[in-house]
Amino acid sequence: MRYVTTAGAALLLLAAGACTDLTETVYDQTTQTNFKPTAKDLGSLIAPAYRALADMYMGWYGNVDVAQEEPADVLVTPERINGWWDGGVYYRQHTHSWTLNSYTFSHTWSNCFSSINNINRVIYQIESRTIPVASDSVKTAILAELRALRAYDYSLLLDNFRNVPIVTDFTAKDLPQQNTAQEVYDFVVSELSATIPNLSTETGVATYGRMNRWAAEAILARVYLNAEVYVGTPAYDKVIPLTQDIITSGKYSVDPSYRTPFSVAAGPLDGGLSHEVIWAVPYDAVYLPVSSFHMKTLKPELRYVFKMNAQPWGGSAGNPQFVDSYDPDDTRKRDTWLMGRQFTPDSVFGYDFTDTIPQFRGKNAFRYGFPVRKYEIYAGETGASNVDYPIVRYAEVLMTQAEALLRTGRADEAAVLVTQVRQRAFAATNPAKATVTGSDLMQGSSYLYGWYDTDGIVKTGAGGTPVTATTGGAFGGADIQYGRFLDELAWEFAVEGQRRQQLVRFGVFSTKAWFNHPADADTHWHIYPIPQFAIDANPNLKQNPGY
Amino acid sequence: MRHLHVVSILAFLGFFAPPPSLAHAQEVGKVAGTVTDRATGGPLAGAQVTVVGTRLAAVADAAGRFALGGIPVGTVTLRAQTIGYGLGEQAVSVAPGEATTADFKLQPQAVELEGVVVVGYGTQRREDITGAVASVTSEQFVQSPARDIASLVAGKVAGLTVNTPSGNPAAGTEILLRGFGTLNAVTSPLVLVDGVPGDLKTIAPQDVASVNVLKDASAAAIYGSRAANGVILITTRRQESDRPVFRYDSYTSVQSIYKMPDFLNAADFRRLAADSFKTPAGNTFEDLHYATDWRRAVMRGTPVNYNHNLSVMGGTPAGTNYTASLTYRSDEGIFQKSNNRQVTGRVNIGHSMYDGKLTADLNMVTRWETRFDGVDFNYLWRQATIRNPTDRIYDDNGDWQIRGTYFYTNPVQMLNTYGGDREGRDLRLHATVRFRPVDQLTLSVLAGTDRGDTLAGSWRALDNPDVPGINSASRGASSYQSQVFEATGTYSDAFGGHRVTLLGGYSYLDRLDDGFSASNNRFPTDLYGYSSLESGSGLPQGLAAMYSGKSAYRTVGFFGRLNWDWNSRFLAMLSLRYEGDSRFGADHKWGLFPGVSLGWRLSQERFVPHFVSDLKLRAGYGVTGIAPNRPYLSLTTYAYANNFPVGGQWVPGLAPAQNPNPDLRWEKKAELNVGLDFSLFDYRLAGTLDLYRRDTRDMLYNYDVPVPPYLYGSMLANVGHMRNEGAEASLTYDVVRSARFHWQAGANWSTNKNTLLSLSNQVYQADECWETGYTGEPIQTSTHRVCIGGPIGNFYGYQSVDISPTGEWIVLDSLGNRIPITQAKANDRRVLGNGVPKHYLAFNNSLRWGNLDLTVNMRGAFGFQILNFGRLYYENLNNTQYNMLRSAFDKVYGKQVLDYPLVYVSYYIEDGDYWKVDNATLGYTFQAGSLPRFLSSSIQSARIYVAGRNLLTLSGYKGMDPEVRTVTGTDLNPGVDARDQYPTTRLFTLGLNLTF
After folding, report:
1. A contact residues 177-216, partner B, Cβ 8 Å cutoff
2. N or C: which end of chain A has fewer CB atoms below 10 A?
């Protein structure tokens, strides 16, 4: 028994001395407890707020193409010989039948709120002095920039979802309450108005990719332009002084070439060729390798034609109906779309692109439909493009003011601005055609709305009767108020992620048919549903009407 | 003598066999006798008779007679043994120069009864076990070359699924015990090699003495938070007698693809092109005027596998003993360059002193594994199957023939312009010291360390097909180190018909993982491969990448167990583990894992009839856990990632990467198991029946959470509840028990029903259903759906029922109406089957006729469906740029050739039921007497065998092999026969076992 006692005692000793410490030893993570930010971390802390925009716009299932262009009349992603049915996701965007959790728009929701949350956190950290800031003026400027960026995120949420929760307090732990469209609109307007005076007026490298005064004014002008759609009260008169402030500043101009703002060298980080881009997402193949829209629209063998370092996937193309609407002398057509024969010098690889796509569903060859070439394609291009995405360019400021003038009965003044934008498009072909008049802008649209049948003729439906500009209802464009101006917007801003908003504003989004999209039964499709996962996660949120 | 042993050990380390140690010159005598079957009285030819404590041994002849000479005078113990019979032992006294008689009558046994079974922190007599524990000893292993240790027991343990869905020699098996119990944590069981965590490749299969599986939670609860997927206990071979043994096992295998799918060949293409054959869509076939069998162009002629295993055992269990082995294994795959080579070494030295009161055990296991790792063979298979057979490998200039087609790569170019290798090394050092101050008490301490690293490198040549003109290379290493420490005390006593064993202990385990990798590109030459990363110009251009990471965790446990039995009638086991893990959240670092099981040996009761040899009813309940699979998951973390220009400088953004979760904890599995063990008719028929219900609660799932107020859009939380219910049965029957012929048959069956009961609570809500699995390009849709209230593994898509006159699918809509697929909406999809087999059945036969032995293992899976991606992608005429199956020309539903793009419909979901002749082995054992004299003096036994693996499959399945991946990790998409895969193979083996 002596042995037992000794041994038992020994075991107890062992157990008592046994290691029971379970604190984690952290090596490769930055945790809340071990990270103490300093003033020099400010750049790193605000970067994610902007970066969310980069992920959102031109990435896979980007806001530009899938959320804003594919439900509209300019761009389609038909089924291809190599696939592109993808469970019907593009078809549902095209025919306005998206489901409640579709990544096509929930992507925008997630990125905007990710940006907002980062902004709230950094604002909280600055105000609570968790992050030391060099001076009061730096503090004022950085807070103004963050609030303006947050207001921009909310302007996107307003445009796409309307009834979203406004959250500005990082420390709030309760699930957010839903706000009305009016509340969101008022928030965006007041935040932008309040911060504009404190924003930097500098352009160039210092503010490139970031919110400066001119970007904020252009965004606020865009919000006012759509005020009637958002809250039922027009605010066109407020558009004019804001846009005029940008014009008068003389900081920007329309680039002589339509291609310049979309070239690799447009931004000040890459050469600074463009004086037109006011605010852009500064994509970079090395540092910000996210932009993949070129892979989605270019076709596989074009890698050899353009000497790219990646094989494109071959989906999206211009809607032939829209491509047909350009004036033959408008060089924006060939600057936006990759047309005709595109072969390697030895003619081994390439395609002869045609402006016909028989139908959305089916085995469409790669050569059907024009791929987008607006964003520069360059030798050595990989799956991530170097081309920056212009969120706002000066031409839009001019066109925004023009639309406000047009809608407030000042068509002739509007025509001057529209002509200014058109001039470079006809400079090399037929300069006289650049000029438009006030009465031109009062005309309907020349876009031949209707069902694009397999024989390439626009009809009232598959196998229906051909339509003309004046057929009316869902067909033709002559009955669209300010339709000509809507056409001008399409020609100038095709595939820049603005078309859904334009069609809604001009009352076309749910009333007209195009390609294989019939007119909608009602207007609830004007905005996207609150993503179902967001409602699941936050019971305070109510689904948008009609969904 | 002790010196001699040291010399022997040293001799072994120098790879010399020890010289046969001869008995000292002394007076000797003889023993002779017979070995017979107690039941039939027939002779047991081949039975081995040994003199315990010496290396004297003899083998019974055809009449069961044996004779042993040179036995030291005095009382010696003789032992007789043969497969399928209990051990026979008797003491005989040997007189000088005389022949003593000793006869053995051995008890036939369908199951080994005396066997002790390893149950975790100790052993138990089989008859005392009250949990669901399966034990497979080396005689019962599947005898063909094993991929890893799991393949040794494929089809041997009811409820343990062992699949070999890939022909890649570098791939392992996939295993699953009693169904899917988790959505987000690891699904693999805890594998312990001689009590220390390891894996199924830690040691060579030849070194395994037994594999024990703790199936239910009452048995596994002693391992706490790591045991929810069951525990596999691997015991290595040890010196157990006093006789030195030198063994050499060797085999050579050849293999071939199990089934070559029937694609068009060059002649077919040419004929279709010459006839201007138009597919319904109007596409034509292009004759490129050459002929290449692309699959043969990337496959080996005859892949050969070799295995050599040398093992030496010597010394005496009562003093110093050693076991050492060295295994070299070289496997070639069916694709060129595909290979896997392993060297495994193992040394175990045991020492016992003070009459066994103090024993020490030193263990070393080391392993080295290397393989070609430069090409994704799964994708290579795709390219070899789809390439136009009238094309050629090289163009007129001798360059690779390339085509611009989408995702279409010259497979020979791929195989030759990509390269790389991967090498892994492990070293395990463990020491155990046992102190037994009194017979009742054993104190034991185990301490050890495991270290290992993996070194991988890959390169891409300038003329590669993907980014022509840009070469690249990468190199990376990862390593782990783990410390284990265990202290246990066991107290056993017997009094008044009671036997009690009490165990208490402490266990500690820590682990540190780290790794790094670097890549560069744009090298001036291809010659360096990955060996001179600095010479590429990609790095200064910002085009190179690198990575490093390091993480650690610790697990600490206190445990105790009480075993009690009363007159071998009533049995009880109670265990408790209190365990903590650093990976858990601050509020849940520690947890309790109880286990309890009870048994009643009815065969000890009078009312049980005589034909019942043994009968035990048992029931158990236990709780086990499974930890999250990464450290740091409960902490708030931020990550520097994603650059943005600030003032002209690119700075990395610092953004939240994870929400804090102080409540993060293990998934908790509670399991109830009821079982019955029986032996009937003089142990001729034996069997086991188990019923279980296992409930996984606090199951981890990634929830969408609103941002704000959360920092990050998803949160890993313990919410869900999954249930697995099932039954298992196994039977062993001695069909024929005669002296010359012995036939034992065994069968086992298992079934499991899986239900996801809940995935939401007050705080976290998940969708009722979510889709998972992925068709891949170009269809890009999900294949499976998981719903609350349903099982894992449901296929979900359109139900095709017919084809239109124009060749388009007719599918059912949500109301059951037949509609063209072009009108089908997302909500018309439905459940199309399930990829998890409902039943597994295995049938194992072992026959011995004189010196000939034959084993045949068959197994099958039933009640499941397979998504045949091979047919989905290649049984379609639409894309004539790709090669296709001959069956693409067949009429769908006997009506019409398909004219529709690739789409996921039920037509491609087939019943997967199969029955396989998994293995057949025919062996012949040469008796010492039948060998030439110069051999029989030194060779104790010699056996040669031929074996075939994956010999025959009976199945209606049209794909290559219905043994597809039905066990998945967190993909939850079982039953998919992928387009990109490494096809399975059939193996033929010639083997030799020599014992000296």
Report:
1. 205-206, 208-210
2. N
Residue B937 CA to residue B346 CA, distance in Å, equals 29
Task: Please judge whether A172 and B709 are an interchain contact, meaning their C-beta atoms are less than 8 angstroms apart.
Answer: yes
Is the Cβ–Cβ distance between B705 and A537 less than 8 Å?
Answer: yes
- The mean per-residue pLDDT over the stretch B930-942 comes to 72
Paired tokens of B513? 């993982």
Q: Quote the minimal CA–CA distance from B780 to chain A in Å.
A: 4
Rounded to an integer, what distance in angstroms lies between the CA atom of residue B205 and that of residue B705? 47
* 3-state class (DSSP) for residue B286: coil
Q: Is A304 on the interface with B (CB under 8 A)?
A: yes
Question: Which letter does DSSP use for residue A68 in this model?
Answer: I
Nearest in space to B654 (alpha carbons), one of B644, B664, B662: B644
DSSP string, B240-267: -SSS-EEEEEEEEEEEEES----B--HH
Indicate the residue of B407, B504, B644 with minimum beta-carbon distance to A47.
Answer: B644
- Total CB pairs under 8 A between chain A and B: 263
Encoded tokens for A361: 């569903």
Contact A147, A194 (CB under 8 A): yes
Q: Give burial (CB, 10 Å; 0-12/13-18/19+) of B411.
A: buried
pTM of the model: 0.86
Angstroms from A528 CA to nearest CA on chain B? 18
Non-local CB neighbours of B69 within 8 Å, separated by 6+ positions? B28, B30
CA B677 to chain centre: 26
Chain B positions in Cβ-Cβ contact with residue A27 (cut-off 8 Å): 514, 549-552
Type of residue at A69: E
Give how far B586 is from chain A: nearest CA, Å.
9
Q: Is the CB of B706 less than 8 angstroms away from the CB of A175?
A: yes
Q: Per residue in A148-181, pLDDT tens?
A: 999 999 999 999 999 999 999 988 888 999 999 9
pLDDT surpassing 60 at residue B110 = no
pLDDT at B10: 36
For chain A, the farthest-separated pair of C-alpha atoms sits apart, in whole angstroms, at 115
Determine whether the interchain pair B779/A85 forms a contact, defined as Cβ–Cβ distance below 8 Å: yes
Environment class of residue A30 by beta-carbon count within 10 Å: exposed (0-12), middle (13-18) or buried (19+)? Answer: middle
Q: Which residues contact A187 (CB under 8 A, 6 or more apart)?
A: A151, A154, A166, A179
CB contact under 8 A, A51 and B655: yes
Residue in B281, B635, B643 nearest the CB of A29: B635
For the stretch B276-281, contacts whose Cβ atoms lie closer than 8 Å and that sit 24 or more positions apart, written own/partner, are: B279/B877, B279/B878, B279/B880, B279/B899, B280/B806, B280/B807, B280/B877, B280/B897, B280/B898, B280/B899, B281/A363, B281/B877, B281/B878, B281/B899
Per-residue pLDDT at A235: 96
Q: For residue B507, what are its two tokens?
A: 């266990």
Beta strands in A177-239 (DSSP E): none
Residues of B in contact with A309 (CB under 8 A): 467, 470
Three-state DSSP at B415 gives: helix
- Nearest CA to CA, how far is A356 from chain B (Å)? 17
B708 contact residues in A (CB cutoff 8 A)? 113, 116-117, 120, 167, 170, 172, 176
* Helix, strand, coil shares, percent, chain A, to 5: 45, 10, 50
Chain A window 236-265: which residues touch B at a Cβ cutoff of 8 Å? Answer: none
Measure the CA–CA gap between A344 and B847, rounded to whole angstroms: 70
Please state, in angstroms and rounded to a whole number, the distance separating the CA atoms of residues B4 and B21: 9
Dump pLDDT digits (tens) for B452-464.
999 999 999 999 9
Report the relative pairing of strands B116-118 and B104-106 from DSSP bridges: unpaired
How far apart, in whole angstroms, are the C-alpha atoms of residue A346 and residue B395? 15
Distance from CA of A531 to the nearest CA of B (A): 11
